[in-house]
Every structure is written in structure tokens, then in C-alpha cells.
Amino acid sequence: MHLDHRCQGIEAAKAFKRAGGTHIFLVSKPSWTIGVTINQPEDYKLVFNETVEMAEAVNMIGVTAFPVLGVHPAAITKMYGRVGLDRTIELMRSGLEIAAGYVEDGLAVGMKSGRPHYEVEPALWDASNEILAFAMELARDAGCPLQLHTETATVEGISELAGMARKAGLSPGKVVKHFSPPMIPEFDRCGIWPGVLAGKGMIEEALAQGDRFMMETDYIDDLQRPGAVLGARTIPRKTLALVDEWGDEVFWKIHKENPEKVYGVEIERTTT
């Protein structure tokens, strides 16, 4: 999920806690959504520092926040008309290098990258794949997972992404496909982890296929889209609602064991 002090911010984290939530992966927002124009690599520190500071504030209310930092792939279409494609690629690569530095300094647990989820011209698509491959190499060297924002998942697409990861020397088991549909066996075969959006019926469909997935809301904390994509309380509420039917052990697997394996973090086994 994303949190922004200009919107609900810490209040959304408090609502998450009241609903029974205890841990979140706090993903940096796209630079342009928080009023930061990237003109030089150092500008990315404004974005990342804000995420780290928000994580510290969330920790203070008794919810553990794990920062995930990176460069949103849509930046390529946001910037290239202003600074040109070559400079855009340079800035995005530099932003990813800075994000990797935060991981190496212990300020974040993972990185974020990807490629546009919408149609772009071939030159931008090729450049996006080059940037994504570079992000995979950085994640490999930093020893951290890489969360991907990409086009809608297909068998062919996730197989391609897994192949790119292997080529970069990054285990597909350290790659998370954000905003995934419930395609649990398909992800298992290619090795990538799905973050299944906790929309209506999707978690039940995923559970019917297995337990090798994580859950997400992609809560974007935007004044123009309140509650989008899903509300901050969605996952604890849905988990507690499904426990009677599915039992609690499967949710310990999804909410504790799986993220611990992927992100290398420790999640306390607590109840609320």
C-alpha cells in the first residue's frame, strides 16, 4: 500500500490497525503524485525519504511498515517528452541505483520497477525492458526482492519476466508481480510470486488453487480517488471474514511465511 501525508496518511494506517492489521509493505509513490519533478538523480531522495519517514511514523502507532522503494515504470512516458528519452533512461536508472542504496543501508526491504501497463511506442517499450533488466541486476546485487508493476499478467508474460530475472541472476523467487490475478499454479511454475489484489472473490479463487501468494490492496492514498484501489482496511477485514471457512493456518502462511521468505523480514506471529 501507499501512504501520503497530504491525504489520509497515518490515519489510513490507524484504520488498518483498528481493523486488525499489523504489518504493511509501504511502497513509494510515483514522484509526480507527490509534487516532485525529477530533474536530477538526487531528486529521487525526496521521494524515498518521504516513504522512509512515513514508515517511521507508522511504526510509532504500533504497525510495522517495511519500505519498498523504486521508480514507477510510467515515469518513462511522464518524462521523455520533457527531457528526451536518453536523459529519461539515465534518470530512471539513477533513481533505481539510489533505491538500491537505501536497501543496502537498511532503510528499505525491497525495490520496485516494471514496465508500462499500457501501450507505448516500441522505443519506449524497449527502453522500459532495459531499465527493468537493470533493476533486476541491482536487486540481485543488493540481495533484495523486486516488486514489479507491469501489464496484466498472462502465462506468457510472467514466463518472460521470470526469464529476464534468471538472465539477470535474480531468482524468480525474489520477484513479486504486483496487482496479480489469482493464477497461483501459473506463478508457481515460473517461480515468480503473485501479489493478489484482494478484490471481490479473488482471494477465495486464489485459495482454491493454493497458498503460494500474498495479498494486496494497492491503496494509493489519493484525495482525488479516496479508497482506491481498495481501502486500507480491506485485507484484515477480508482475512478475518474468511478464517471460519478456510482456517487460520493458511493465512499465517500468506501473511507471515510467504512474505518472510520473499522479503527476508521477520513478522511476529501475533493476534489482535
| Main sheet attributes: strand count, strand direction, barrel closure | 7 strands, parallel
Low-confidence stretches: none
Please tell me the overall pLDDT: 97
| Helix/strand order | HEHEHHEHEHEHEHEHH
Report the portion of residues in β strands. 5-15%
Query: Count of helices?
Result: 10
CATH H-level superfamily: Metal-dependent hydrolases
Helical proportion, percent range: 40-55%
Q: Radius of gyration, Cα only, in angstroms?
A: 18 Å
Give the oligomeric state of the chains in this entry, treating copies of one chain as homo and distinct chains as hetero: single chain
- Name the structural class: alpha/beta
User: Would you count the extended β strands for me?
Assistant: 7
Strand order of the largest sheet: 1-2-3-4-5-6-7
Q: Determine the N-to-C terminus distance.
A: 20 Å
Describe this structure in words.
By secondary structure, this protein is an alpha/beta fold. The chain has one domain: Metal-dependent hydrolases (TIM Barrel, Alpha-Beta Barrel), CATH 3.20.20.140. It is built from ten helices and seven strands. The chain has helices at 10-18, 44-60, 75-83, 85-104, 122-142, 155-168, 184-190, 202-207, 234-246, 249-263; strands at 23-27, 64-70, 110-114, 146-149, 175-180, 193-197, 214-216. Strands 1-2-3-4-5-6-7 form a seven-stranded parallel β-sheet. The two termini are 20 Å apart. The mean pLDDT is 97.
Q: Which secondary structure elements does this structure contain, and how are they paired or packed?
A:
Elements: H1 10-18, E1 23-27, H2 44-60, E2 64-70, H3 75-83, H4 85-104, E3 110-114, H5 122-142, E4 146-149, H6 155-168, E5 175-180, H7 184-190, E6 193-197, H8 202-207, E7 214-216, H9 234-246, H10 249-263
Parallel strand pairs: 1-2, 2-3, 3-4, 4-5, 5-6, 6-7
Helix pairs in contact: 3-4, 4-5
